[in-house]
């Protein structure tokens, strides 16, 4: 089975010329086994070389410990094979006008279903009408990602704006089975370098933050679920959990949210969440938190493919907020994840949790000797029973 059968994706940011050139080469010089060649090309186009290595077994068993992401009943990242796919709703829409109308009408317990073949560009409405899709409490926005080959409906924004495309202020909203594509998959490295010196003693925040940002989903309610979605191309964050308790972010493919200085897959403000069975790739930080007292997250059974420009999981401390404390969330629990990141830490300790921070039973690509312990272990922050070194796994119990 090829990697294309293991993940459902609709959002790409490749240079079309590279794809054209590769296909032209195949046409001019067809190999004897063209199937394998095309399969390799598909993997490269999707940027999923690392996933092909681990998707069938993203964990290792050592000395009685299972380290890494343990498969569940639904596929990592959602898509084909996902069981809880909706196929209809109280409002069935296929274009921008129908979607905007349904969002304004739908109430608690109702479903807005976007047809799987739909491609809805909301950019003009954002510019002309300052559009934000704001869902009432209890509403579900759904499409059919993973059903009979469907990649789910695609919502598109080409607007650079800190205002989100989707805002969730009510409780118990669900967003499921849909793809949301932002305008900016780039890291803005040249501008960042020109604004910040390497020793961080000379910098120009104002100039750098004139670079426009893009924000996908912003959450302020409680008990929000985002599942079986693909979210990509948001320079600020794909998902921002500003406030609220008990958010559940699971079985999503979240990638290419990567601007330097920001670039979050899932960002937390004064919020708590459970994050599991997601696939992350090409994010600056796949999971981040402002670290406010009372906030926190548990991240388990996620696949971090790396290709990042910073440590993968994060929680700010009081020094970052400049609030006179050393608090980095109430809790941060990171267990049974796989980190294929080759250049950065899986996480970076930036303060002390009010309760505890735990990093256990994870599988980390780099050997333990590649990390300085002071950036992993600290006050109420523990590292136990993790496997390090993908090519020669070793269990580190401390």
Helix content, binned percent: 10-25%
**Structural class designation:** alpha/beta
Sheet with the most strands, sense and barrel status? 15 strands, parallel
* Radius of gyration, taken over Cα atoms and rounded to an integer in Å: 21 Å
Structure annotation, total helices: 8
Distance between the termini: 38 Å
Count of folded domains: 2
Question: Averaged pLDDT, please?
Answer: 93
- Counting DSSP E segments of at least 2 residues, the number of strands comes to 30
- CATH class call of the largest domain: Mainly Beta
> Tell me, what's the shape?
globular
Q: Report strand %.
A: 25-35%
CATH architecture title of the largest domain: 3 Solenoid
Outline the low-pLDDT stretches. none
The CATH topology of the largest domain comes to Pectate Lyase C-like
């Amino acid at each position: 089975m090829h990697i294309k059968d293991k993940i459902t994706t609709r959002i790409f940011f490749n240079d079309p010329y590279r794809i054209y050139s590769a296909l032209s080469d195949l046409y001019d010089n067809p190999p004897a086994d063209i199937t394998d060649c095309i399969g390799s090309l598909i993997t490269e186009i999707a940027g999923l070389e690392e996933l092909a290595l681990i998707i069938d077994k993203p964990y290792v068993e050592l000395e009685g410990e299972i380290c890494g992401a343990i498969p569940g009943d639904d596929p990592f990242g959602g898509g084909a094979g996902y069981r809880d796919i909706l196929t209809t709703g109280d409002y069935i829409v296929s274009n921008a006008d129908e979607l905007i109308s349904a969002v304004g009408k739908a109430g608690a317990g109702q479903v807005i279903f976007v047809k799987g073949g739909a491609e809805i560009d909301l950019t003009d409405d954002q510019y002309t009408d300052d559009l934000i899709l704001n869902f009432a409490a209890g509403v579900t926005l759904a499409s059919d990602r993973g059903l009979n080959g469907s990649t789910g409906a695609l919502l598109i924004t080409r607007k650079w704006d800190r205002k989100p495309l989707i805002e969730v202020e009510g409780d118990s909203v669900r967003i499921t089975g849909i793809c949301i594509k932002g305008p900016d998959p780039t890291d803005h490295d040249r501008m960042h370098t020109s604004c910040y010196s390497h020793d961080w003693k000379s910098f120009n925040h104002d100039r750098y933050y004139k670079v426009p940002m893009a924000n996908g989903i912003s959450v302020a309610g409680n008990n929000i679920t985002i599942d079986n979605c693909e979210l990509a191309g948001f320079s600020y964050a794909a998902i921002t959990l500003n406030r609220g308790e008990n958010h559940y972010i699971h079985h999503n493919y979240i990638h290419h949210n990567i601007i330097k200085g920001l670039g979050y897959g899932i960002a937390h403000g004064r919020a708590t969440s459970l994050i599991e069975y997601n696939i992350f790739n090409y994010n600056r930080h796949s999971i981040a938190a402002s670290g406010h007292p009372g906030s926190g997250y548990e991240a388990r059974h996620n696949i971090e493919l790396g290709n990042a420009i910073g440590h993968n999981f994060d929680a700010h401390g009081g020094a970052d907020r400049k609030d006179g404390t050393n608090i980095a969330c109430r809790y941060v629990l990171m267990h049974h994840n796989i980190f294929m990141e080759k250049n950065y830490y899986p996480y970076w300790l930036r303060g002390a949790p009010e309760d505890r921070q735990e990093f256990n039973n994870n599988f980390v690509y780099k050997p333990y000797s590649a990390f300085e312990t002071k950036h992993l272990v600290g006050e109420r922050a523990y590292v136990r029973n993790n496997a390090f070194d993908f090519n020669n796994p070793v269990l580190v119990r401390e």
